[in-house]
């Protein structure tokens, strides 16, 4: 017996309507993932140099970025520059989706009127809150990445502590639990990602002051400058926290720990390296 006889079909359930809702979001996710993967492949060697110099400090094994590059390639080959690439390679799509989805949500909460543009302070506040949210996704990915990046060349026959990202995750959870293992350095990540206020605020400020085309959009050159302003503002305002984050994440998984937390880590960096320690490895980032 047909129980739907006489009932009108909900047009919102039509296949065309579902596709019109799902496909654009899926397409954006796929596009964001592919873009993130390309950026990761291009930028990961610089990130590896940055993390190695951050964690070694001014008294460590590297004299500078060129020396770090030479030693890494000589001892580990070019593959050494791509240690730890797997987690961000496959996680960047999730990070970008979380970041931009959270940003749009926070903007809607902060700015209720859809007919007026957001002010620059509103955009900056939205960026900061977005950073707090996205840190929940970023921390486990960066945790594994950083630990694999600082696995240096070993004598023949000696096995590294982690055979890969899966083994790293398994050991961290087995030794410390999910929270203690995967979220070590979370608060430092929150502080670092708070600088998304400078990223989105810097981009918006540049977008407003740079010359535009007749249709009101930025040209290629102006878009490049706006993106540069966003990235520069982001790294200049968060780099000391990034140093602390990577030191906390990459420290040996033994007890007692070398660093007990953000403040303890900052004190020990300053004691050994001074202010310079908080900007060690900045050149590859720039």
- Structural class call reads mainly alpha
Query: What portion of residues belong to β-strands?
Result: under 5%
Span between termini: 70 Å
- Shape designation: globular
Percent range of helical residues: 55-70%
Largest sheet: none
Q: What number is the mean pLDDT?
A: 90
Total number of strands: 0
Question: Could you tell me the radius of gyration in angstroms?
Answer: 22 Å
- Element-by-element helix/strand order: HHHHHHHHHH
If helices are DSSP runs of H or I spanning 4 or more residues, what is the number of helices?
Answer: 10
Unreliable stretches covering 5 or more consecutive residues: none
Descriptive report:
- The chain starts with 14 loop residues before the first helix and ends with a helix.
- It is globular and about 65 Å long.
- The longest helix has 42 residues, at 15-56.
- Helix 4 crosses helix 5, helix 4 packs across helix 6 (186-193) and helix 6 (186-193) runs antiparallel to helix 8 (220-250).
- 34% of the residues are buried.
- The model has no long low-confidence stretch (mean pLDDT 90).
- The chain is 69% helix and 0% strand.
- It contains ten helices and no strands.
- By secondary structure, it is mainly α.
- The protein has helices spanning 15-56, 65-76, 86-110, 120-149, 165-182, 186-193, 196-209, 220-250, 262-273, 282-285.
């Amino acid at each position: 017996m047909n129980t739907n006889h006489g009932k009108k079909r909900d047009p919102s359930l039509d296949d065309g309507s579902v596709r019109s809702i799902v496909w654009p979001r899926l397409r954006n996710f796929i596009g964001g993932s592919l873009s993130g993967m390309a950026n990761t492949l291009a930028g990961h060697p610089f990130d590896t140099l940055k993390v190695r110099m951050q964690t070694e400090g001014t008294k460590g094994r590297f004299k500078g970025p060129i020396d770090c590059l030479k030693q890494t390639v000589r001892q580990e080959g070019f593959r050494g520059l791509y240690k730890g690439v797997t987690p961000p390679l496959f996680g960047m799509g999730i990070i970008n989706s979380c970041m931009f989805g959270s940003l749009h949500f926070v903007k809607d909460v902060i700015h209720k009127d859809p007919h007026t543009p957001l002010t620059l302070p509103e955009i900056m506040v939205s960026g900061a809150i977005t950073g707090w949210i996205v840190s929940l996704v970023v921390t486990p990915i960066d945790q594994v990445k950083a630990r694999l990046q600082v696995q240096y060349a070993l004598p023949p026959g000696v096995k590294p502590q982690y055979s890969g990202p899966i083994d790293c995750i398994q050991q961290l959870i087995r030794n410390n639990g999910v929270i203690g293992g995967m979220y070590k350095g979370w608060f430092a990540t929150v502080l670092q990602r708070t600088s998304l206020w400078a990223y989105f605020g810097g981009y918006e400020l540049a977008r407003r002051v740079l010359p535009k085309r007749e249709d009101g959009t930025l040209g290629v050159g102006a878009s490049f400058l706006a993106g540069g302003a966003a990235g520069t503002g982001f790294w200049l305002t968060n780099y000391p926290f990034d140093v602390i984050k990577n030191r906390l994440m990459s420290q040996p998984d033994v007890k007692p720990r070398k660093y007990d937390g953000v403040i303890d880590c900052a004190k020990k960096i300053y004691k050994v390296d001074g202010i310079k320690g908080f900007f060690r490895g900045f050149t590859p980032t720039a």
